[in-house]
């Protein structure tokens, strides 16, 4: 039986180390477009020489492998080419070639031998693997679909040791696609193109449902940008559940009203749900007597003006603050983003100073208010009010005495220093 030296010489005290390392383990499959277009298109390199997009992708992967074998040697990686003449993969799919070396699984830790052989791939590629267009008119081959399928199969066959099993479900699984073709189905027309696009998008969706993230690394031409909206911006493509065809436009929603169908676009629905266009929207003013103690939903926030972003805001704030103090009113406002705002109450606070300096700063306390359904009454839990537990007179008297004993008179937060900001631990002794 073959033994793993890491497992044989591992102490039980190292379990915590292994668990922490496995929690960040990554399974990665590089997918490289090997079509003739990748070899014919060039970009200027740092040394002013022209290199093909295929060489750019190979150099990038080679550098990542060298970094990974030093810094993240326990991550597993696979390299897959598509639009190839030869085929080599688990499913025997056309136009897909999984590059590997002997004594190593297709998805495994990077080795020195893998890096050495991969450095020679540019010279050997045409002879050993070859390049061709895998998506052509009159052919049902879909090289991009096959490449994603092969990568998905590799990620599902990840190699795990016994002590890796617990973290296998939480491993980060990724697919990186290198290509300079923003329209892989551009040469196909009609229903065949729609069907191939639909099946490819569905294959990508299946991979995402399995927890696999797919990332595109587009390679642009010097005089032409890679247009992701042609195909790879999949959020613009929707699949009809009845016909299976692609929907180019965003669907609309409807509401029946008096036998009429009222249509709404996504933008119109977003506008209807918009509460406010700003983060703090003033609604009006109410007497302070309307504000109850139980209206405080969570810890409040203290706000004050600043002229850095809006000149004159301090002057307006002072006028509003003075009026609210004199009239004993608080401001009612919406606070938050455009669709999830909270009701808040703004209560003005005067500045309090002594001979020692400022005790309380001027400004406003922003108290988060509950909505009507946020308040629950105790009586609702009991159908019969007579069955409610009642405290005896002695218990009430004892509770009242307790409250009087712990009452803090003339309390101020300035009476207590923040121990976290004290440089000398001995200063804690002199806190009043």
Automatic annotation (TrEMBL):
Coiled coil: none annotated. It comes from Cuscuta australis. GO terms for molecular function: ATP binding; double-stranded DNA binding; helicase activity; hydrolase activity; telomeric DNA binding. The keyword Nucleus applies. Pfam families: Ku, Ku_N. It comes from the Eukaryota. Its main location: nucleus. This is Ku domain-containing protein. Belongs to the ku70 family. GO terms for cellular component: Ku70:Ku80 complex. Keywords: ATP-binding, DNA damage, DNA recombination, DNA repair, DNA-binding, Helicase, Hydrolase, Nucleotide-binding, Nucleus. CDD domains: KU70, vWA_ku. Residues 243-386 form the Ku domain. It is found in: Nucleus.
């Amino acid at each position: 039986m073959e033994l793993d030296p890491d497992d044989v010489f591992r102490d039980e005290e190292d379990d915590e180390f292994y668990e922490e390392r496995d929690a960040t383990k990554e399974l990665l499959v590089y997918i490289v477009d090997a079509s003739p277009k990748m070899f014919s298109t060039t970009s200027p390199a740092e040394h002013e020489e022209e290199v093909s997009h295929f060489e750019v992708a190979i150099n990038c992967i080679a550098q990542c492998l060298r970094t990974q074998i030093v810094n993240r040697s326990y991550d597993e990686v696979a390299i897959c080419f598509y639009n190839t003449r030869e085929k080599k993969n688990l499913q025997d799919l056309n136009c897909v070639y999984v590059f590997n070396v002997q004594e190593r699984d297709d998805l495994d830790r990077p080795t020195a031998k893998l890096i050495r052989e991969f450095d020679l791939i540019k010279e050997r590629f045409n002879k050993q693997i070859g390049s061709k267009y895998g998506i052509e008119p009159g052919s049902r081959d879909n090289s991009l679909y096959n490449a994603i399928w092969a990568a998905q199969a590799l990620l599902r066959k990840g190699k795990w040791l016994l002590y890796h099993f617990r973290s296998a479900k939480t491993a980060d699984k990724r697919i990186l696609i290198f290509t300079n073709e923003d329209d892989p189905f551009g040469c196909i027309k009609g229903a065949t193109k729609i069907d191939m696009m639909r099946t490819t998008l569905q294959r990508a969706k299946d991979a995402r449902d399995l927890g696999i993230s797919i990332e595109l690394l587009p390679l642009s031409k010097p005089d032409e940008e890679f247009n992701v909206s042609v195909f790879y911006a999949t959020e613009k493509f929707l699949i009809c559940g009845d016909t299976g065809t692609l929907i180019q436009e965003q669907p609309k929603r409807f509401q029946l009203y008096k036998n009429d169908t009222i249509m709404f676009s996504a933008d119109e629905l977003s506008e209807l749900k918009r509460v406010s266009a700003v983060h703090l929207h003033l609604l009006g003013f109410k007497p302070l007597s309307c504000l109850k103690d139980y209206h405080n939903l969570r810890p409040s926030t203290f706000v004050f003006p600043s002229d850095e972003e809006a000149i004159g805001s301090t002057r307006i704030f002072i006028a509003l603050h003075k009026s609210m103090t004199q009239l004993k009113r608080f401001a009612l406002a919406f606070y938050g983003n455009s669709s999830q705002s909270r009701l808040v109450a703004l209560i003005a606070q005067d500045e309090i100073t002594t001979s020692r300096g400022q005790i309380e700063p001027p400004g406003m306390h922003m108290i988060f208010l509950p909505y009507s359904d946020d308040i629950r009454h105790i009586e609702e839990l009991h159908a019969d009010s007579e069955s409610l537990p009642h405290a005896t007179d002695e218990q009430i008297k004892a509770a009242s005495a307790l409250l009087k004993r712990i009452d803090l008179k003339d309390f101020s937060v300035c009476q207590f220093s923040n121990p976290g900001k004290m440089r000398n631990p001995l200063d804690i002794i002199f806190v009043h």
